[in-house]
Amino acid sequence: MNNKNAVERIEYELTTFIRRAVYIDNSENKIGNLERASYLILRQLDEFGPARVKKLAESFKLDISTLSRQAGALEGKGLIERSSDPSDGRVSLFTITELGREKLKADKKTRLARYQKMLETWTNEEKELFGELLERMNDVF
Amino acid sequence: MNNKNAVERIEYELTTFIRRAVYIDNSENKIGNLERASYLILRQLDEFGPARVKKLAESFKLDISTLSRQAGALEGKGLIERSSDPSDGRVSLFTITELGREKLKADKKTRLARYQKMLETWTNEEKELFGELLERMNDVF
DNA sequence: ATTATATATTTGTATTATACAAGCATATAG
DNA sequence: CTATATGCTTGTATAATACAAATATATAAT
Lengths: 141, 141
Description:
2 copies of one chain form a homodimer.
Chain A: H1 2-28, H2 35-48, E1 51-52, H3 53-60, H4 64-76, E2 80-85, E3 88-96, H5 98-118, H6 124-140
Antiparallel strand pairs in A: 1-3, 2-3
Helix pairs in contact in A: 2-5, 3-4
The structure holds a DNA duplex (30 and 30 nucleotides).
């Protein structure tokens, strides 16, 4: 039963956390749209290199049409760049631009600062452990 | 720098987790609408007792009008019940119904099962520690 | 080679969640 | 007893999304 209680607590806290995080995302994204999606797209392209629409859609488990529009919006803002795959004319490959990298960096900084502050009373050990546990959870999610 | 790395990892993993969790929520909520919101509302009413629209809106950091509609929908499904505050005729107090409790229980079961499975290889100690850390994080969030 | 089928993406349309503003009912203050 | 404040609901606009249709290109079958 202790196990159940622990899992219950985890479920409770994660659910609570998600609600708040989504709120923060939404409230900060008042300026224009997309902020929420764009961070993830930029991060993905920065980390794993150029990707096409289908790939991005799969990464985020969103419909291809949705990613098509989001990528189009990011392209319009000059944060990512479209190039065609020489071996397949149907495919658009998206690459993060220098501007996109800057924006990603700035966004990340803001987000990190928030977490930094949230966890300022934690010891390094605790933070490391927490990160490890989160990573393990995501690996099987 | 180690500290920064740990926080970076936490930020990365939590962001990833949120994306996936929101996806799951959305995909399960195809049936009708509201599942996402309703779980939280029911949980809130079950845990803290009757509440009025304004209170619920504050809890979830959503606009009052949004909560008004969500509560209306839950009321329509018989999951919560409206009563007026005898001391103030403007206020509607919402209470979870027996049916609502059953639905909450069922939803919770599904969610717990998912977490249970996700964490099945963890030791009890790890689960407990993880829950504790999550709670601490939420407390300052 | 020519046509049929499959795949990648974009664009059209509908739905849902949400916020903000206006309206309505009820309280409270002057 | 009127004026103002409060609580909620309803009207309207916007954004994110999915699904379906359209378009372009590639691959397979004859």
